[in-house]
Amino acid sequence: MDKKLTDCFNPVRYSFNYSKKNPKYLYRINYTIPMKNKFLKLSLALVMPLIASAKTDWTPTFKDAPVTKEEVKVIAAAMPTSPIVKPKAKRKVLIYSATAGFRHKSIPYGKIALRLMGKKTGAFETVISDNPANFEPAALEKFDAVILLNTTQDFFMPSSKTQRDEFSDKEWAALQKRNDRLVDNLVDYVTNGGGLAGIHAATDSCYNHKEYGDTIGGYFWGHPWTAKTNVTIVVEDPEHKIIKPVFEGMKDFRLQEEIYQFQEEPYSRDRLRVLLHLDPDRSDKVDPEKVKRTDGDFAVAWVQKVGKGRVFYTSIGHNNHIFSNPLMLKHYLAGIQFAMGDLKADTTPSSKRK
Ligand SMILES: [Zn+2]
Q: 150 CA distance to ligand 1 centroid (A)?
């Protein structure tokens, strides 16, 4: 950068409109450029509104560690080769995994696994994208289901902890407004007959959006069982249409995985059909202070009907190896086929089961 240009971008020298809180506002600094450099001023006047609008159209991007070829082979070898049920039509799912909080290392494994799952089983075609524009109503309508793969916090927003300073108050407010609108769009999409499949941290998302919590079925409340613990998961509803084809003849199974507990609200067996739960007595011992639920109800997977739509959620999906575990891949496939409307299954809440 030549000297003149560097000076123009030096907020200390041209500082009458300089915001200390947001030193990265190039377009604000624009107003401080001396009149004499007309060419530069004109160029910036043309470019700066684009930068400003780019900020309110902000799209999440992430740099995840790549999955090795060998790891892809392992995932492919574990993949089911046929769908649980024959799809009724050509199906398309959106895989969204943007994070405004903790970012799981398993996300790229999940993306590869779900893409391969669609291909190998023929159950669905995948669109893997973190572009929030996919959550505009006309775009959502093209998908048979949305899969939230380890999203965290307000997943259409930049991180309020690490990225807040890159935006002005006005831009941040505009992004928040967009976030609220897109979460509403997602809830409306499900209510009007769409499908939603949530994996692991999908319940560690959108805490300020009650309708989202009701739709996904619960909010994260810590994970007393950490990533290295060995747990026993009970097949609670063995005859259920989502469970039987996957866990046939199994009363329970063992897994090394981080297991969530859910906040008292909105999680409820009066609304959800719980399919799997953790047995704390047959799982590694954990710090008792971290166990907040007093009823011993540690649900792991459920389904529910929301309006005309279908929601499947499983809290399994923290560790990378989950995405190359044949049983877990089949568990996801059944849940996704339910969410898309191909696998018909009972959503009568657990407490109302006969
Ligand atoms: Zn996790």
A: 8
Any idea where the domains of the chain sit in the sequence?
3-56, 69-352
Between the CA of 50 and the centroid of ligand 1 the distance, in Å, is 37
| Pairwise CA distance, residues 318 & 299, whole Å | 16
The residue length of the chain stands at 354
Contact 264, 213 (CB under 8 A): no
> Is the bond into 11 cis (omega within 30 degrees of 0)?
no
88: CA distance to ligand 1 center in Å? 34
Q: How far is the CA of 177 from the centre of ligand 1 (A)?
A: 28
Find the 230 Cα to ligand 1 centroid distance in Å. Answer: 15
pLDDT, position 354: 76
Residues 272-323: pLDDT tens digits?
Answer: 999 999 999 999 999 999 999 999 999 999 999 999 999 999 999 999 999 9
Mean pLDDT for the chain overall:
89
- Residue 108: CA count within 13 A, CB half-sphere: 12
Q: How far is the CA of 15 from the centre of ligand 1 (A)?
A: 44
Residue 154 backbone phi and psi in degrees, to 5: -80, 90
- Centre of ligand 1 to C-alpha 6, Å, is 44
**Distance (Å) from CA 104 to ligand 1 centroid:** 6
CB 246 within 8 Å of CB 331: yes
Q: 257, exposed or middle or buried, with CB in 10 Å at 0-12, 13-18, 19+?
A: buried
Give the CATH number of domain 69-352: 3.40.50.880
